[in-house]
Amino acid sequence: MPRHVAVVMDGNGRWAKRRGLKRTEGHAAGEAALFDTVHGALDVGLEWLTVYAFSTENWRRPVDEVRFIMNFNESLLLRRREELHELGVRVRFIGRRGGRTPGRVRRRMAETEAMTARNRKLTLTFAFNYGGRAELADAVRAIGHEVAGGRLDPDRISERTVARHLYAPDMPDPDLLVRTSGEYRISNYLLWELAYSELVFTDVLWPDFRREHLWDAIREYQRRERRFGAIDE
Ligand code: IPE
Ligand code: IPE
Ligand code: MG
Questions:
Q1: Residue 126 CA: distances (Å) to CA of 11, 140, 203
Q2: Do 121 and 87 contact (CB within 8 A), yes or no?
Q3: Element (DSSP H or E) covering residue 91
Q4: Is 10 one of the catalytic residues?
Q5: What's the pTM?
Q6: Fold assignment, 4-131+174-222
Q7: Cα 70 to Cα 103: distance, rounded to the nearest angstrom
Q8: Would residue 12 show up in a list of annotated catalytic residues for this protein?
Q9: pLDDT digits (tens, 9 = 90+) for 91-107
Q10: Residue 233 pLDDT grade (very low, low, confident, very high; cuts 50, 70, 90)
Q11: How far is residue 190's CA from residue 25's CA, in Å, rounded to a whole number?
């Protein structure tokens, strides 16, 4: 079993377009996919599930779509956090907290994290206003401050130093990355953390994704042979 599965929830816009709907209706339809996936993760005892909800590059989209996504995420947390809490899910967020994210959305995120902080069945991490390069730049800046303040010897900077300054230092690296909608790229997701993850791509559009698709991806992962640069003897 993988310990940590990361998902790029992609294809909402295309799903909506195929049905003659607005792109935003695709985002709304993604809620059912997310919750079915969470149930599927709980069913198989997965410990960590990380989902890409909004990238630092997604601000480039039309203001109406960005506004919808912000409001939708806030309402999703309000409507469904009790349910996640009762399921034993610890909800967390990685990404830039400040910036253009409206204050009320940030407050909802912080409240949800506090409410679910002691849950241990599954950690559901939302990558929100997240960019892998932003995460590394933020880590480098924090390390720079420690060096400038005399608290860190630059000669002692190691991979562990970098890993300790990521948004969620206690999060294990993903064993498996799943991307939906037939796109074969990383799109600035978890650049450091995905170093040795197995990659599984599916043509299913995110709103159609269900727990069986997660299990299919896990079975595919179980057929892979991970070597981490070594050789099999
Ligand atoms: C993923 O679906 C959701 C977000 C990026 C917020 P898209 O909105 O990217 O859907 P497509 O890729 O345009 O179909
Ligand atoms: C990645 O999908 C971001 C999220 C799923 C939130 P995008 O749709 O933004 O990625 P690109 O633009 O196709 O690379
Ligand atoms: Mg997309």
A1: 17, 22, 22
A2: yes
A3: strand 89-94
A4: yes
A5: 0.98
A6: Undecaprenyl pyrophosphate synthetase (3.40.1180)
A7: 11
A8: no
A9: 999 999 989 999 999 99
A10: confident
A11: 27
